[in-house]
Amino acid sequence: MENIGALAILLALCVALYAAVASVVGKLKSKPYLILSGERAVLAVWVLITVASGILVYALITGDFHFAYAAGHSNHAMPTLYKFTAWWGGQEGSVLFWGWLLSSYSVIVVLQNQRRHRQMMPYVVAILSGVQSFFLFLSAFLVSPFEVLVSSVTHAITPVVDGLGLNPQLQYPAMAIHPPMLYLGYVGFTVPFAFAMASLITKQKGDAWIHTTRRWTIVAWLFLSVGIILGSGWAYHALGWGGYWAWDPVENASLLPWLSGTAFLHSVMMQEKKGMMKIWNMVLVASTFFLCIFGTFLTRSGVVSSVHAFAQSPIGKYFVGFLTIGIAATVYLILERRKFLKSESHLESVVSRESSFLFNNLVLLASCFAVLWGTLFPVITEALSDEKIGLDKEWFNRLMIPIGLFLLLLTGVGPLFAWRRTSGESLRKNFLVPCAAGLTLAAVLFAGGARSPYGIVALSFCMFVMCAILLEFYRGSRAIHQKDGVNYLKAAIELTHRNTRRYGGYLVHMGIVLMFVGWSGSAFNQNIMADVGIGDTVHIGPYAVEAVDFHTGDNGNYVWDSAELKVSKNGDYLGEMEPEKRLYTVSKQGLTHVAIRTRLNEDLYISLASVEQNGQKLTATLQLWVFPLVTWIWIGTAVLVFGTLVALLPSKVARQYARTEVVGVTRKHAVVES
Amino acid sequence: MILVSAAALSILVLTALLLVRETDLHKPTPVSPFQHLDERKAAIYENLRDLQFEFRVGKLSDADYQQTKLDLQRELAQVMAQADQLKSELKLSPQPVTLHEPRPTESVSAATRCSTCGATFPQPLKFCGECGAPMGSQQKGQRA
Question: Which residues constitute the domain of residue A209?
Fold first, then answer.
């Protein structure tokens, strides 16, 4: 079986290279047969990678431990779900998974565009297949998932009785889908990049590449967002260190393309609306793609030490080579075609939505650079002084909190400005209510005893932005209500349906605001660590936690200790909580299973560090936190996902492509100056 | 067994790649040389519609509205001029920049009253002069 798998990958590599070459040659020599053959090759690559992946997954599920990968990442005791997720749980499998996802995306692109974009498609296929070839090369020659276990004495294939199993930290429901979500995002940005470059190569007039890839970009961005938040949720619920973001290099790696992708999603509107920022959009879409590759490189190469230490391998230098060649080619192409990317209009006024988008882009890019710098700082210092100096969480927080707050403010300010120009009168009209609401909340918080400047500013900005968004919905709904006589809810739905992109976008902003509410709560966190025996009580904030009993057990996959705790708040009994600590039998790795009492206003979060015998007394070391407002991060994520899905729906009034001969006549300003 | 499977897989792939028949070639959707200008025009109409709506809901002052509307109309005129230039370059017979003759009663009424903003016009229009929304026969292409 392993031979068939390895052969399938090798064949897929050859066919992907053929697809790239055949498409370009077919286009240059005007041979439609060759172009179609190149597109068929894309389908053939998918079949071949699917065969290889099927063999690997079969080995993982059935426990075929003569495969080194199955022996390293699966075992008999693991539930079937985690045996399947072991496909992307290790280095070799995840590179194959990347390739399979890209291949699946490429097939969709080819099938969608059999009759459309025929000028661009050969180059789109060539670029997608080129990227595909790189990952297949890695799978075929450097990190093959089809290596077998060979005895060093007899040199015969020697399966082990049971495998090591998946990293226990990955045996968690959110973690099962966190990597595929991130990968769907990473890989998804390859499609807009391929269309953008194809548009440049073929000197396409207009914004066809943007219209075609708008949904691809939004879907990729959505997957990336969900992947990042799932990782954050996993850190919070499974790791037990009492937080959801630690500025770990691999966390940062996923944030980088998200930041540049978000900038791209905004700036692309400038191109569609006004034909501006064409070069900038090319730069952004290319940066996002290369940051996705860079993110995969950081995760997979082990170039910077991270909690994701499962990935140490020699593939780093190949990634560096691929990135260098790719970036050089892209820069050359953009410079060579810069005349085609001239703006069709200019910025009329600083006080306009265009300038707020510009600011948004600059700040997003600045934050992207800051995160990149902080992430690579250890590598840079090691290269310059032979000493690795890492930047800690505080450094990132000092820099990123103010940047994040400024971005939050821009989220609210943008929709209040009009396109092109906003007069003082319009400004007063639009800013009055949101500003008053924000300032009122700041005063209330201060009067209520809050003294954290960041906490107060963040929550006031959240109020400001929320008001600005609600005002947009209210004004639009009121107009429909007055005209059609429907109630406000129906009017709001009608409003959203008329322009799903705009109002879906506002819902996404609302989700971001709610997430900021959750993050702002961290300014008011409380935390203690305590050793408790049975019958002892520990207090944190309004909560009293009493240790009732300690338990231990073994279920074959892992042994565990747990603490049975009775929790009350201000004297009222709330219920029991039972944090757990596990030790996985085969891998000898530990895992904390925290107990969390979740409410909208705050979470009580208890982690069991250890249970030890101290003389006659059994004591448990507990870490307790109170996290105010943290639930709003997860609620905000749900709103963000909903808003993005709304933005993906077609609007009721679809954009029309008028015939060139027809000229509309306006009632007012009938004389048009040229 | 392995050799047979490998050979079968390879033959299958090669056949799929190399056996391309005339009938397999897809007929590409024709692309108008005016497409980029039509897209630009559609974007300007959309901007006009957005502008009208923002003015109606009270987000814009009258001065902002009038000035921006004039700017958009200027842009539209430039795009029209580019289309005319392209037409002459392509040696197409010049189309009169006039409206179609009134059609039967039903389409006339649809073409003189905008179903989006309710504005009415003395003569039929393809696009609303107030908000830029498609009118008359253009509306048939709209999604429900």
Answer: 172-367
Q: What's the half-sphere exposure (Cβ side, CA atoms, 13 Å) at A167?
A: 16
DSSP string, B88-129: HHTTPPPPPSSPPPP-SHHHHHHHHB-TTT--B-SS--SB-T
CA A515 to chain centroid, in Å, comes to: 15
Q: Give the mean pLDDT of A535-551.
A: 93
Domain boundary among A302, A332, A367: A367
Q: Is residue B52 part of a domain?
A: yes
Is pLDDT at A526 greater than 80 in this prediction?
yes
Chain-centroid distance of CA A589 in Å reads 28
Task: From A51, A53, A52, A93, select the one nearest A72 (Cα to Cα).
Answer: A93
CA A36 to chain centre: 34
DSSP A340: G
Among A177, A157, A168, A176, CA closest to A64: A157
Distance CA A664, CA B45 (A): 10
Structural domain that includes position B59: 31-92
Question: Chain B: nearest CA to A655, how far in angstroms?
Answer: 7
DSSP label at residue A150? B
What ranges make up the beta strands (E) of A271-417? none
* A388's tokens: 């690795």
As a whole number of angstroms, the distance between CA A618 and CA A596 comes to 23
ipTM of the complex: 0.72
CA atoms within 13 A on the CB side of A576: 9
Do the beta carbons of residue B79 and residue B36 sit within 8 Å? Answer: no
Is A50 exposed, middle or buried, given 0-12, 13-18 or 19+ CB atoms closer than 10 A?
middle
pTM of structure: 0.85
In a domain, A101, yes or no: yes
Q: What is the b/e burial string over A636-659, where b = at least 16 CB atoms within 10 angstroms of the residue's CB?
A: bbebbbebbbbbeeebebeebbbe
Phi, psi of A194 (to 5 degrees): -60, -45
Residue window 22-51, chain B: list those with CB within 8 Å of chain A. 24-29, 31-32, 34-43, 45-47, 49-51
Shortest Cα distance, chain A CAs vs residue B74, angstroms: 6
- Is residue A448 less than 8 Å (CB to CB) from chain B? no
| Chain A: closest CA distance from residue B86 (Å) | 11
Q: For residue range A280-303, what is the model confidence (pLDDT) as tens digits? A: 999 999 999 999 999 888 887 666
Which 43-82 residues of chain A touch chain B by CB within 8 A? 43-44, 47-48, 51
B5 inside 8 A of chain A by CB: yes
Q: What residues of chain B, 115 to 134, have a C-beta less than 8 Å from chain A?
A: 116, 118-119, 121, 123, 125-130, 132-134
Note whether B36 contacts A205, CB cutoff 8 Å: yes
Interchain CB distance below 8 Å, B70 and A422: no
What is chain A's mean pLDDT, rounded? Answer: 88
Same domain, A138 and A224: no
Residue type, A19: A
Q: Is the pLDDT of residue A453 over 60?
A: yes
Q: How many domains does chain B have?
A: 1
The CA distance from B45 to A666, in Å, is 12
Say which residue, A176 or A303, is predicted with more confidence: A176
> Is there a single domain that holds both residue A135 and residue A252?
no
Query: Is B38 in Cβ contact with A652 (below 8 Å)?
Result: no
Contacts of A329 (CB under 8 A, 6+ apart): none
Instruction: Note whether A433 and A541 are within 8 A (CB).
Output: no
Report whether A445 contacts A523 (CB < 8 A): no
d(CA A610, CA A430) in angstroms, rounded, equals 56
